[in-house]
Amino acid sequence: MTDDPVISLRSATKRFRGATGIHTAVHDLTLDVRPGEFLAVVGPTGCGKSTTLSLVSGLEPASAGEVLVRGAPVRGIPAGVGYMFQQDAILPWRSVLDNVAAGPRWRGAAKAEARERARGWVRRVGLGGFEGYYPHQLSGGMRKRVALAQTLVNEPEMLLMDEPFSALDVQTRGLMQDELLRLWAGTGAAVIFVTHDLEEAISLADRVIVMTTAPATVKASFDIPLSRPRNVEEVRLTAAFLDIYREVWDSLREEVARSRAQGTGQGVDHAA
Amino acid sequence: MQPDARDTGTATATATQPTQPTQPTSPRTPADLDNAAAIAAAAAARRRRRAVVWAVRLAAVVVWLVSWEVSATYWIDPFNYSKPTAIWHRLIDWFTKGTSAGSIWTQIATTLQEAVFGFVLGAILGVVLGILLGRSRFLSDVCAPFIKAANAVPRIVLASLFVIWFGLGLSSKIATALVLVFFAVFFNAFQGAREVDRNLVNNARILGASRTQVLTSIVVPSATSWILASLHAAFGFALIGAVVGEYTGADKGLGLLIATAQGSFDAAGIYAGMIITTVIALLAEWLLTGLENRLLRWRPPVAGGDAQL
Ligand SMILES: Nc1ncnc2c1ncn2[C@@H]1O[C@H](COP(=O)(O)OP(=O)(O)OP(=O)(O)O)[C@@H](O)[C@H]1O
Ligand SMILES: [Mg+2]
To answer: Disulfide engineering: A18 pairs with which of A23, B193, B235, B287, CB 3.0-4.6 Å?
Structure first.
């Protein structure tokens, strides 16, 4: 039972009706995520990564194939799923504390209890003292932390993260990555972490999958043999990291080149 | 109050070791002095600017009133155009001796009551229907042609119809005000409910919000700034509705005063009625602005707040 995948996609396909006809965003995607696994997804821009997450979260139904969460087909939003969106999605008219307390409140917790739990998470993501601030009074990095606390306060079993840190500067990003690993350790949650940044993917994940240019499907999967707990800044300097980086980058480079040739986007950060 | 322990821990630590513990309240460093001086200078400049603005406004009003008074005395016919002193005397008369229709306060209370009822009912109806149709594709598809047709009817004409339906009492004026307010509010509420950020809705659904919770905690607050914007204009419409309704047929109210004044070619009476109505509208505007500021506290301050109208 323990190693049954929590999330599995079986030949999942998603088509959109676009301006120029039917557009296939995800094609024949097969993918398993084990309980507690940290999976990073990299791929050229516009290839269908966000679409994949929306299939898993139940926000979009698959056009063909199957999406299973805990063995059951996804209809509506599965219980235990948390999703940090690519775009800002915190409520601008609620203070930090009330934003974080929103999930528990909606799930039926009493106001006092919801706020108590929210207060703990606000502190854990390093925003202690900002409880009464409104989102427009926060920096971009702080807003991302609010979103993180908002998601984690529900104690999700599956955490979907769509380029959560891509808008942050390098220092804040490093800090947030460490924080994420710290907060994730011990939760036992399965994570699908979409990113453009291959370094980020490798330093965080247990496994990295490379997606093909649109329509997205899994091109290759790489296990990351780095030990935990990790310090993202230090792990990047190890020889093992550089080896695996080269290997993944070789695979990704071709897709990025194809994506550029198709003119779909600017490709992927290549920082090393 | 330095909230972020990680970033400001050291700063807080140094700040708690005062260099001059004997003078905790006075400015400590030249930089502080500069700051205080700059703030004081900016405040003084702001005050001066405001004083100039008010002085120019006052001057404009004085010039206008004096030139009106003078020209009405020497050149043009005050019978048609009246003049400020005549209007002033008419106002004094109304407030001290009463009007042709009775005490002025009764007239004001009547009109105000009609406007407020029409406003509240119209706003509630507009908000509820606007949000409902804004969120339901099916309902809005079904209702679109009817709403458009109803909106195209010259609504002031309805005042006459309502007098026939509801008689000369309050209800016909309330109905007129209601119809005017409804459309103003409805279209904004509809648009506001339509333009809700999909991300916010999706995020709420993932976090566990039910359909009703999405409506109450996402859609309604998102539409609030749209709705509040329409309420400003809407109270003006409610007053127009009440006054036009009274004008069409009534036994009390400011509209009746204006109609009576018109019947006796009393230009000063028309102006006096106008002025009272305007004052009421301005007071309502002021109250609504207060409400708006309270409800939209979460919004970033508007750049160049002075320039706001
Ligand atoms: N709701 C939609 N309607 C129509 N087309 C869509 C919709 N959502 C996504 N698409 C299309 O599907 C493709 C994949 O989009 P997706 O957002 O999944 O890309 P992505 O891999 O997340 O890109 P990025 O890395 O830039 O975020 C794009 O070509 C996009 O135009
Ligand atoms: Mg995306």
So the answer is: A23
